[in-house]
Design goal:
By secondary structure, the chain is α+β, with helices and mostly antiparallel strands. The protein contains 13 helices and 16 strands. It has helices at residues 6-12, 59-65, 115-120, 129-151, 210-220, 256-277, 279-288, 293-302, 310-319, 336-346, 397-406, 415-422, 435-443, and strands at residues 18-30, 34-40, 48-53, 71-80, 88-99, 155-156, 162-163, 175-176, 203-205, 222-230, 243-252, 306-309, 351-357, 373-381, 385-392, 428-434. An eight-stranded mixed beta sheet has the order 6-10-11-16-15-14-13-12. The chain is elongated and about 85 Å long. Bound molecules: adenosine-5'-triphosphate and manganese (II) ion (MN).
Length: 463
């Protein structure tokens, strides 16, 4: 007999079907002549209720062993369920217990646990309703992302995790080394001699795959990356991880408007896909985590995003009838409170802010004719703030070189990036989407640590 997934049985199972299920016990309710056990195999939020009658061979032992958390295979026959909230249940004909879970020491008891507590038992938390739903939605988001790009002919390119460029100059890099830290080789000048390190130079964990994606776009036209990135930001916020996943499309023959159009269609597609494929999980988030989750999703799908320039945004913030903690003035970056004011209070939907001052944006963004602003765009989402950051890239060799010099970046390290402007340069654009921020936005989960299976944050790398 082949094992059936519980989600499949709940949707399509018919009375009198003989089936086997395998999973973990969520609850056990002993009655006089029989026992109810709810089994969950992770395929859906709801489990399947199995009924063990006392005439079942080995009944007493099975019931004793089937505590919450125990793993089990159950053969049986599907029957219509008289109970509320379920169409069918499983009349067990044989039970095999793989592994018991001690009722006294199993950490996941029936009561509600705090997310903080669950983070300390990340090896078990995926068995809870909320975290289980998060990871199913996370999976659906990944599938939606690949589907969106694959349908449009984008090539998925794998950019390196180990990188030697610190081009963003963000200064939040993890150095990787095989040097003996007790005896680090030094140069005559007393500096660390990275020429003796594994790569013969200093190397880092990547903070973004963009520059490599640009290389690939100059051959395949439309590409995207989807992989982990790393930032040693020592900020303990609910929106930052030291290891997070990013999606970075890069398009040749594309300008900022094309970039915005794609980003908007992309976000809409992800929301539509998840609503269609995870209705039960999304309903759960709406009921138990944040009662605006479904309305927000529909709002995203059905409305055009607002598009404003940075200069307009500054004007709106200056006119706002409230005090901000951080100053607002042309030339300063938007802080999270400003971003949230625009998306959450003023427009009540995602807002795309474009044309930021050149001095607060990266060197590769295309300089506008005013020489003051660059063709950058950020998408700001209610409750989350920045969810997408992107730009049209500077395709003109001389302008790019000028920007690199102004910012004091090492031009010699960027020789290959500049070569792309020497040989067959084209207008091109792209953006980066923080994957966990999307999952947060989708589910209403307030802490980013609860939407990635094994969060990496300052002082925390367990599991
Ligand atoms: P923020 O201002 O929120 O720190 P950023 O300007 O550093 O963001 P980018 O460098 O533009 O972000 O990175 C692209 C996207 O990656 C961001 O829009 C955001 O969604 C996401 N992101 C950035 N840093 C993190 C992080 N530490 N953890 C999770 N997601 C992140
Ligand atoms: Mn940042």
């Amino acid at each position: 007999m082949t094992t059936r997934r519980i989600v499949d049985l709940l949707r399509h199972g018919q009375p009198d079907e003989t089936v086997t299920i395998q999973g973990w016990v969520r609850t056990k309710r002993e009655q006089k002549e029989f026992t109810f056990v709810e089994i969950n195999d992770g395929s859906s939020m709801s489990g399947l209720q199995a009924i063990l009658n006392q005439d079942l061979p080995g009944y007493a032992e099975a019931v004793r062993k089937l505590n919450t958390g125990a793993s089990v295979a159950i053969d049986g026959v599907l029957v219509p369920s008289p109970g509320k909230g379920q169409r069918i249940e499983l009349q067990a004909t044989s039970v095999t217990v793989y592994g018991e879970a001690d009722a006294e020491t199993y950490p996941l008891q029936k009561k509600r646990h705090s997310f903080e507590f669950l983070r300390d038992i990340a090896h078990l938390r995926a068995r809870t309703n909320t975290i289980g739903a998060v990871f199913r939605v996370r999976n659906a988001c990944s599938t939606a992302i690949h589907q969106f790009f694959q349908e449009r002919g984008f090539l998925w390119v794998h950019t390196p995790i180990i990188s030697a460029n610190d081009c963003e100059g963000a200064g939040e890099l993890f150095t990787i080394t095989t040097m003996d830290l007790k005896q680090v080789p030094k140069t005559d000048a007393g500096e660390i001699d990275y020429s003796q390190d594994f790569f013969g130079r200093r190397a880092f964990l990547t903070v973004s795959g963009q520059l490599e994606a640009e290389i690939m776009a100059m051959a395949f036209s439309n590409v995207y990356t989807f992989g982990p990135t790393f930032r040693a930001e020592n900020s303990n916020t609910s929106r930052h991880l030291a290891e997070f996943w990013m999606v970075e499309p890069e398009m040749a023959f594309c300008d900022l408007v094309g970039n915005m159009d794609l980003a908007e269609a992309f976000l809409k597609h992800i929301f539509r896909y998840v609503l269609e494929h995870c209705p039960e999980d999304m309903e759960f988030f709406n009921q138990r985590i944040d009662n605006s989750v479904l309305a927000t999703a529909n709002n995203i799908i059905n409305n055009e995003f607002e598009r404003i320039t940075y200069t307009d945004a500054i004007g709106m913030l200056e006119k706002a009838d409230r005090k901000f903690e951080f100053p607002v003035s042309w030339g300063l970056d938007l802080q999270s409170e400003h971003e949230r004011y625009l998306a959450e209070e003023l427009f009540k939907k995602p807002v795309i802010v474009t044309d930021y001052p050149a001095q607060i944006k990266a060197f590769y963004m295309r300089l506008s004719d005013d020489e003051k602003t660059v063709r950058a765009m950020d998408i700001l989402a209610p409750k989350i703030g920045e969810i997408v950051g992107g730009s049209q890239r500077e395709e003109r060799l001389d302008v790019l070189q000028r920007r690199i010099q102004q910012l004091g970046l090492p031009e010699e390290d960027l020789w290959w990036y500049l070569d792309l402007r020497r040989f067959g340069t084209v207008p091109h654009a792209g953006f980066g989407l923080g994957f966990e921020r999307v999952v947060q936005f989708m589910t209403g989960m307030t802490n980013i640590r609860d939407v990635i299976p094994f969060p990496r944050t300052p002082l925390n790398a367990e599991f």
